[in-house]
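Hi everyone, sorry if this is the wrong subforum. Our group has a chain we'd like a structural model of before ordering constructs, and none of us has done structure prediction before. Sequence below.
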Amino acid sequence: HTCIELQKRPVVSFWTDFTAGQAEVGMGDIAAAAVAYRSGLKREPQPSKSDRKSAADGLRRMAEAKNIGTDEITTIVALLE
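Answer:
Right subforum, don't worry. Here is the predicted structure as tokens:
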């Protein structure tokens, strides 16, 4: 809920979107997670390659913790890499 409120602000960091995406994965909503990650990738300034890698690593950790198969997050990981 915090991320959703922060995303309404005129200036938002891509990390807010990535955090929302990771939370959505944690709740099992992969489609909503993909929307959040895509939003983050469109922010200005755009995330650097190392920021995208860090986000992908966090996504993988969350998926593993929640026993979500890598095939379910493949599309999002591909966006980040």
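For your construct planning: Residues 15 and 51 are 9 Å apart (CA to CA). The mean pLDDT is 94.
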